[in-house]
Structure formats: structure tokens, C-alpha cells
Amino acid sequence: MSPPLRFFESSLTGWGRHQQSSCHVVRPESRAAIGEALRVGPGPILPRGLGRSYGDAALNTGGSVVDMTALDGVLHFDDTSGLLRCEAGLSLERLLAHFVPRGWFPWITPGTKFVTIGGCIANDVHGKGHHSQGSFASCVLSMRVALPNGELREVSRDADPELFWANFGGMGLLGVVVDVTLRLRRIETTFYRQRSVPVRDLDELLERMAEHDASHPYSVAWVDPLCTGKSLGRGVLTVGDHATRADLADHPSPLRLGPPQRLVVPAELPEATLNPVTLRAVNAVIRAMLTRGGQFAHYEQFFYPLDLIKHWNRGYGRRGFTQYQFVVPRSGGAQTLRAILEAIAASGNLPFLNILKHLGAPSGGHLSFPMDGYTFAIDLPIRDGTPALTRRLDAMVVDAGGRIYLGKDAFMTAESFRAMYPRLDEWMAVKRRVDPEGRFASDQSRRLGLTPRL
Ligand SMILES: Cc1cc2nc3c(=O)[nH]c(=O)nc-3n(C[C@H](O)[C@H](O)[C@H](O)COP(=O)(O)OP(=O)(O)OC[C@H]3O[C@@H](n4cnc5c(N)ncnc54)[C@H](O)[C@@H]3O)c2cc1C
After folding, report:
1. Ligand 1 in contact with 52 (CB < 6 A)?
2. Most Cβ neighbours (<10 Å): which of 142, 229, 306, 395?
3. Residue 270 pLDDT greater than 90, yes or no
């Protein structure tokens, strides 16, 4: 017999640590217990993974939060096809530990391994290879979703395809994804062949990115936040591909796992440490690391450099930070990127880290973020004017025909959201069908008008 479910009143935050939320949290230890949590949970319900969304996507003030991290089992694996069936609370970290030594890797991975499969679906996450490989939806075959009425429904491209696609970018608002069948990628080694290309300005950066499109499945650029005017966009483009056994003929363990986290930020740093001097120092270190990266990089350095430091988000101090991530179409994209970076520089807010990637064709997810274009992610420590600044930037993104990533969003208004996501009405129709009473909600969904305000 499974132990009785217990809800604990807990204070939760997003990864940006600037919104605190008091929620009733339950951590089911069996898939059967999810149904009970939906039945007895007080107030609106929301599933949660490892809390790596930056804003309020995984917060549900006054309501129930179903912490999925105990449901992390591997249910079945086919070593020939790479098809994995697993519980949705499985993290990429555990998946890597289990499958990397056997020569398998996640098909798509975001920039941290501390995410669950359920979280990857809810945000339809993308990695450095979106232009060549698509978003997380491209590796998912089917999933079972616990619906608000207690039904457990299997969905796929053929079985209730509308609900299947609505879950990619569905932000946990359509039910709890309980288990998933997805495809893994066969790898010969855990290393990546990489090349660093320093660039002088934004035009050169976009040109080099386009040049390497066909030859390299992975690409990402660090853009120096201190460069303005003519040198705006100066940075380092890193492109890469999987290293083969032949590339690493002399390597003693080509399927080596990464090291455990050794460095830790033990407590919140004082706000005064975030100043132009530290901004310069941090970005000088990043530039040096990128330009001297070597020909081969282990996947930890290639995909997850920030994971090496535990609790790095505490470095932004008591008020936390936001990551402003948007995508704009390629055509006219350079002008919008330039205008947004100039607006941030003029505002006096210090952008600590600027990352540019390009995205390819969208998935079928109604509210999925990726669309053909350039995506820029900018880390901004929270200051008094930050919400107003991001809303001004939102208007520029809307004008350019782009959108904000809901996994990073913290301050967007319902009006901007509606203007950015043209398939919102289709998604709302699915929401009304599976959740007519609006049982599933989050702080973000109320802010964006996806569910009524309390
Ligand atoms: C350092 C860092 C780097 C990142 N890099 C990238 C990147 O390169 N690309 C990218 O796309 N994203 C990136 N992200 C964002 C991250 O991938 C997403 O926010 C992801 O959704 C987090 O997964 P999680 O398990 O922590 O989910 P949470 O943050 O806990 O929840 C996110 C959403 O998923 C829903 N959810 C969680 N579990 C379930 C479930 N079982 N069923 C239904 N809904 C569920 C929640 O309700 C919530 O709406 C990054 C984040 C960090 C901190």
C-alpha cells in the first residue's frame, strides 16, 4: 500500500529567484498517486519539475504544486532503436548517467541537464542545434497525460494529436505528463569537435553563423555585453559536431561521464558585487575560455558549462535576476537585435551574459517558442526599472514579429503575449476541452490571461 499523500506548505521560486510563492506541495512516489493528488489538492493545480524555469511558470501561489521529481523511473529501453519509455520526472542528469556509458545521449538538450523530461515537453525546449534538429517535440513519440478529470490519456501524432501538440509549450496547464516514449541518439563518444570563431561585430557574427549552418549541427555565440556602437555584437561563435571514435583514437574512455559539481556559490552575493568591474572581469574570462577551448570538448563543457557551478543563480544577489530571451525573424533581425541591445545599454541596466543562437523551423506545438530566426538570451540582475525595461523591449519584439520564451518570461503582459503567439486560440480550444473548469493554472498563466485571475 502506498503511503498517504501529504501536502506541505512551501515557499518556491523560479531559477531567477525574484518571485517567492507559497504553495501546497506534494511529491507523489507512484504514478497512481498523481490521480489522488489531482482529486484532493487544494486550489488550482500545477505540475513542477526541477524548477529551472526562470520566472513564475512553475509557481502556483495559494494552490497545489505536484513535484514530479520522485517519478524518475526508466520503464523500458530498446537498445537497437534507442526508444526509451520513462517517467516524466526523470532528469536529463539521471538519463545521462544511465545511458551515456551504453552509448546513448538525449536527442535534444537545453543548456542545463538539471531539467525533467516533463519540463522539457512543457517548454518544448531547444538546444544549440535547433536549426538542424528541431526542438524537444522532434524526439517524443507519445506520452500519457493525467487529465484534470482523472483520466489517463495516451497521446501521440495519431492519438488525440491536438492534445499531443498542445502539450509542447503547454506550460503544465493541460494535465500532468506522467510517462513518455522518446528517442535517444546513438553516440560513439561523449566529446564534441568544436571550432571558435571570434567576430568583430553583429554583421560578421550573423554571416559566420549562416556560413557554418550546413556543416555544423551545433552553434552558439557569446556576445560581449560591453561592446556598443560599431563593435556591438563583437563576440565568439562556437560551432561543433559529434566527435567519432576515429577522432579520439587514443582516448582511454571515449564514453566518459562528466565530473560532479565541485564549485558552489554558498550564499547570495551582495548586490554591490554586480558592477561594471565584475561584468568586465566575468566576460573577459568567458572570452578567454571560449577562444582557448581546444579542438575537442566534453559534453559538460560543450552543452552545460553553467552546471559546473552549483547554485550559480545565487550570484545575482537578494533580488535575483531575469533572463530576457526573445526570438525575431531572420529578415530584419539584425536591426531588431541592434535596437534591443542599444535600448538595454541606454537604460543603465547591466546585462551580465548575452547568448545568441539561431533557430530553424517551428514544431507543431501551439505555444512552442522556437520559430525561424535569431534568439537572444540576456541575463539582467533585477533592479527597480527592470520590469518596465523588459516591457519596452517586448513592444519592440512584437513590432518585429517575434516572441518571448515562456520558460524565461517573468514580466510580460497578457496583451504582448497574445500579439506574439498567433496559435493561442487553437491552444485555448484544447484547454477548454480537457480542463473546462480551469483546474490547472500557474502564476504565469494568470498573468498572461491563459487562466482567470484568482
Ligand atoms: C542554466 C539554464 C540553461 C537553460 N538553457 C535552455 C536552453 O538552452 N533551451 C531551452 O529551451 N531552455 C533552457 N532553459 C530552460 C529550461 O530548459 C526549461 O525551463 C525547462 O522547462 C525546465 O525544466 P524543469 O524540469 O526544471 O521544469 P520546471 O521549471 O519545474 O517547470 C517548467 C514548466 O513545466 C511544467 N511541467 C513540469 N513537469 C511537468 C509534467 N510532468 N507534466 C506537465 N507539465 C510539467 C511546469 O508546470 C512548468 O510550466 C535553461 C534553464 C537554465 C536554468
Report:
1. yes
2. 142
3. no
Is any ligand 1 atom within 6 A of the Cβ of residue 237? no
Check pocket membership of 223 for ligand 1, CB cut-off 6 A: no
Q: What is the pLDDT of residue 182?
A: 98
Burial of 16-41, coded b for 16+ CB within 10 Å and e otherwise, reads bbbbebebbbbbbeebebbbbbbeeb
- Name which residue sits closest to atom 3 of ligand 1, judged by CA: 111
The verdict on the CB of residue 349 being under 6 Å from ligand 1 is no
**Could you read off the pLDDT of 156-202 as tens digits, one per residue?**
999 999 999 999 999 999 999 999 999 999 999 999 999 999 999 99
Query: Mean pLDDT score of the chain, rounded to an integer?
Result: 95
- CATH code for residues 191-413: 3.30.70.2520
pTM: 0.97
Q: Given pLDDT bands bounded at 50, 70 and 90, which one contains residue 71?
A: very high
Instruction: Please report how the helices 333-347 and 386-399 are oriented relative to each other, as an axis angle in degrees rounded to 10.
Output: 160
Domain 74-187, CATH class in plain words: alpha beta
Residue nearest atom 40 of ligand 1, based on CA coordinates: 118
Q: Which residues pair with 298 in a beta bridge?
A: 191
Q: Name the closest-CA residue to atom 11, ligand 1.
A: 125
Per-residue cell: 353: 551574459
Domain ranges of the chain: 74-187, 191-413
Question: Which residue, among 451, 417, 447, has the nearest Cα to 431 in the 3D structure?
Answer: 451
Q: How many CB atoms lie within 10 A of CB 260?
A: 7
- In degrees, rounded to 5, the angle at the alpha carbon of residue 113 between the alpha carbons of residues 107 and 116 is 80
Question: Ligand 1 atom 9: the closest Cα is on which residue?
Answer: 110
